[in-house]
Amino acid sequence: ETLRSITDSTAKIEDKESRLKAFKSLDLRKRKALSDLFKCLSYCGLSYTKGQATYFSVEYFYQVLGTMPATPQSAWTLYNLKTLLNLTLKPSDQLSLAEVQRIKGFSGHLFWILQETLSLRERTKDARDSLKSALSNL
Q: What's the per-residue H, E or C state across the chain?
């Protein structure tokens, strides 16, 4: 079930007490999903504490993203990262301050990893090009 369909079906409940119970259940499901997401991100190797130590500005974020190669996969990645950035800049009022800080931390660490990956790609490309030119000079 999608979140919208659950919310719509919950709003249609006539009895006030049943509706309140349904909204509390929905809120609990949202918090559980967010908790599961944090666990999954930690399992994947991301750390919100490392991300909190990483400072990046919005301008720098877009500058680094502008260096990504233009492929369909990178376009999808760009879209998701921009969505993530927008969520960290304008968080939902349903999130607590601690949850917002964790989201920002995970986002920062993810961005740092992306930045390191792009930097490594550039260094590898430069090394390959210098090796090619050295081999062609032989």
A: CCHHHHHHHHHCCCCHHHHHHHHHHHHHHHHHHHHHHHHHHHHCCCCHHHHHHCCCCHHHHHHHHCCCCCCHHHHHHHHHHHHHHHHHHCCCCCCCHHHHHHHHHHHHHHHHHHHHHHHHHHHHHHHHHHHHHHHHCC
What is the spatial distance between Cα 129 and Cα 123, in angstroms, rounded to a whole number?
10
Residues in the chain: 138
The answer to whether the beta carbons of residues 52 and 101 sit under 8 Å apart is: yes
List pLDDT tens digits, range 11-33. 666 677 777 787 888 888 888 98
36 token code pair: 């599961």
